[in-house]
Amino acid sequence: MTATTQGRVAPGNLAETVFRIACASAATLLLAALAGVIVSLAIGGWPVLSTFGFGFLTSSEWNPVTDVYGAAGPIVGTLITAFLALILALPLALGVSLFLVEFCPPALARPVAVAVELLAGIPSIVYGMWGLFVFAPWFAAHVQVPLLLAAGDDTWWGKLVQGVPNGANIFTASVILAIMILPYMSSVFRELFLTVPATLREAAYGLGCTPFETARSVLIPYVRRSMIGVVMLGLGRALGETMAVTFIIGNAHGFPHSMFDSGSTLASTIANEFAEATGALHGAALMALGLVLFCITFGVLAIARLLIGEKAA
To answer: Which residues partner with 63 through β-bridges?
Structure first.
């Protein structure tokens, strides 16, 4: 802090000092809140972690009646649905963003882009209800049943698609998750592609490149670092999605044995059972699931940060 010779602080310096203190306070408050979440989850889940130890993460048995809890089933369900959703959404998001930037007529590009951004703001429970009442019955009747009838029980294809043909399974939950993260990812990809200087595109077209070659050789390499961050943020959102997945995944504990088998995720298990967790160990198990989900999401974002850092080096 700089003071005048009379011991008084100049008004400009005082405002600068207050601004710096306010910014530091905001950052400190955020870190304190984050630390409080971690500590509260660890304290809340400690009874079940101390009882079952590392077996809590490797066991798929979940029985509130006998107070036996294992998180392996929800962990596997969370990872499978999130990565399947990312695999489905990533090419579509790239296609939508490239179409809006490179091929869509200017008069339509802006309205279509706004419509895509509005889709990102629809509540997840709406996607879940649509998935349960509309998409799941259609999927069961027109996709799941024909595949079950066509595939043999002893073939690898038959084992991959086996399951109760009701449309509520791991794959349909992944499709709903992909639909949810698609508008978000395509909107950010579009903003990234708009940052590419027009002179680079014009130079590529001037050299005789096709639109596909321009996208592959100019646009995507120019924003590759930022694209990694968008992909990881989309994955992080898919990992933590709750209500839509709870509606459509089938909510069965244990390991899923096929793409069309019912399952559960960490978030859906917490949402389904938290209001009914009357036992101390049951509540602690749900808090421990929250801690595991926090660690997985934090790990994914940390890996994204490392990848972006390596690309920048």
So the answer is: 68
Please report, as a single letter, which amino acid is at residue 112.
V
Dist. CA 157–CA 165, nearest whole Å: 16
pLDDT of 297 above 80:
yes
CA distance 25 to 139: 51
Measure the CA–CA gap between 83 and 32, rounded to whole angstroms: 31
User: What is the distance between the alpha carbons of residues 259 and 174, in angstroms, rounded to a whole number?
Assistant: 10
Which residue in this structure is represented by tokens 């038959």?
Answer: 158
For the chain, the C-alpha Rg in angstroms (whole number) is 24
pLDDT tens across 165-194, in order? 888 889 999 999 999 999 989 989 998 998
What are the angstrom distances between the C-alpha of 75 and each of 57, 189, 219, 253, 255?
8, 29, 36, 10, 9
- Residue from 237, 235, 250, 232 nearest 173 by CA: 250
User: What's the pLDDT at 12?
Assistant: 65
pLDDT value at position 201?
A: 84
- Its pTM stands at 0.85
Q: How far apart are CA 206 and CA 129, in angstroms?
A: 50
DSSP assignment string, 152-218: -TTSHHHHHH-S-SSS-SHHHHHHHHHHHHHHHHHHHHHHHHHTS-HHHHHHHHHTT--HHHHIIII
